[in-house]
């Protein structure tokens, strides 16, 4: 098989958690959220799915900077072990906030293995499709974390806006999740306020912010892509809607096809053969 990928979840929760937002047990096709939406992209891939590190901060989904930092540190040994195994020629980091992405690229570069992640991949693909993109996201704290990712990836000039539907993930003391309830309702063909909010914010991003592509922030919203695309199409908006898993898998394939991974100048080893006297901005 040409593509041998390890897909790594950002974190996993104990099965007893009242804040579960995806299955924690079962076949890989069940554990990979929205598998049906990316199934066609994995047909030519020999792939494994790692659940990611156990969340050390608690038993709820990650949203804050502190929580992202903790799961990022937990994901790095998984990446190193995957690289050392020799089983994979690409690593895809799942999760909209891409914890540990840059550090994982640094680890994998010495093995010649490309690493992709969801926010980075969406931004790159979006920039090829339109002048500016907007992000539809779910909570104020996650919005501002994602804001930092836009800056880190040098897309402040291409990101029109981050739009908030204000539907946070469950965490103490709140066990309910409007997003996950809306997903089940949408799959049954029912209309929901959460989906309507996403449509309103996407249209506002187009009309008020100048967005020509729509992307998503948290991976808990990636299921919306076909529904939002359909609603916008029906309204007459000829605009592509992207989600992170598809973009990250596709870019990993492209990097394997090109025979490239991260630049050694961006991620130098501890004793590079050549070094630069000056770094400019």
Unreliable residue runs: none
How many angstroms does the end-to-end distance come to?
Answer: 41 Å
The best one-word shape is globular
Quaternary arrangement of the chains shown? single chain
Instruction: Give the DSSP E fraction (strand runs of 2 or more residues).
Output: 5-15%
Number of strands: 7
Task: Give the strand order, joined by hyphens, for the main sheet.
Answer: 2-1-3-4
- Tally of helical segments: 10
Classify the secondary structure makeup into a structural class: alpha/beta
Structure description:
- The strands form 2 sheets. The protein has a 4-stranded parallel sheet with strand order 2-1-3-4, sandwiched between helices. Strands 6-5-7 form a 3-stranded parallel sheet, with helices on both faces.
- Helix 4 (101-109) links the parallel strand 3 and strand 4.
- The protein has helices at residues 28-31, 35-42, 65-85, 101-109, 118-129, 140-152, 178-187, 193-209, 225-235, 244-258, and strands at residues 3-8, 45-50, 90-93, 115-117, 133-137, 159-164, 213-216.
- It contains 10 helices and 7 strands.
SSE layout and pairing:
Elements: E1 3-8, H1 28-31, H2 35-42, E2 45-50, H3 65-85, E3 90-93, H4 101-109, E4 115-117, H5 118-129, E5 133-137, H6 140-152, E6 159-164, H7 178-187, H8 193-209, E7 213-216, H9 225-235, H10 244-258
Parallel strand pairs: 1-2, 1-3, 3-4, 5-6, 5-7
Short summary:
The protein is an alpha/beta fold and 281 residues long. The chain is 43% helix and 12% strand.
Keywords:
alpha/beta, three-stranded parallel sheet, 281 residues, 10 helices
């Amino acid at each position: 098989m040409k593509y041998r990928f390890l897909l790594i979840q950002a974190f996993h929760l104990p099965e007893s958690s009242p804040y579960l937002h995806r299955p924690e047990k079962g076949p890989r096709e069940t554990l990979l959220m929205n598998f049906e939406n990316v199934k066609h992209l994995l047909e030519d891939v020999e792939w494994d799915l790692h659940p990611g590190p156990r969340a050390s901060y608690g038993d709820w989904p990650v949203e804050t900077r502190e929580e992202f930092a903790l799961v990022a540190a937990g994901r790095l040994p998984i990446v190193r072990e995957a690289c050392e195994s020799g089983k994979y020629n690409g690593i895809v980091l799942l999760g909209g906030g891409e914890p540990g992405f840059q550090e994982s690229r640094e680890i994998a570069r010495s093995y010649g293995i490309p690493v992709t992640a969801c926010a980075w991949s969406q931004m790159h693909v979006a920039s090829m499709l339109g002048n500016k993109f907007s992000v539809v996201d779910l909570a104020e704290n996650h919005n501002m974390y994602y804001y930092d990712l836009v800056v880190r990836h040098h897309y402040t000039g291409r990101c029109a806006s981050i739009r908030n539907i204000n539907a946070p993930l469950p965490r103490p003391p709140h066990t309910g999740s409007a997003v996950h309830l809306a997903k089940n309702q949408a799959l049954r063909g029912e209309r929901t306020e959460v989906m309507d909010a996403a449509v309103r914010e996407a249209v506002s991003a187009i009309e008020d912010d100048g967005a020509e592509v729509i992307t998503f922030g948290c991976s808990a919203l990636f299921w919306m892509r076909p529904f939002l695309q359909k609603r916008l199409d029906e309204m007459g908006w000829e605009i592509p809607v992207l989600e992170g898993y598809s973009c990250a898998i596709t870019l990993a394939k492209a990097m394997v096809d090109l025979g490239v991974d991260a630049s050694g100048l961006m991620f130098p080893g501890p004793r590079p053969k050549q070094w630069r006297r000056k770094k400019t901005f």
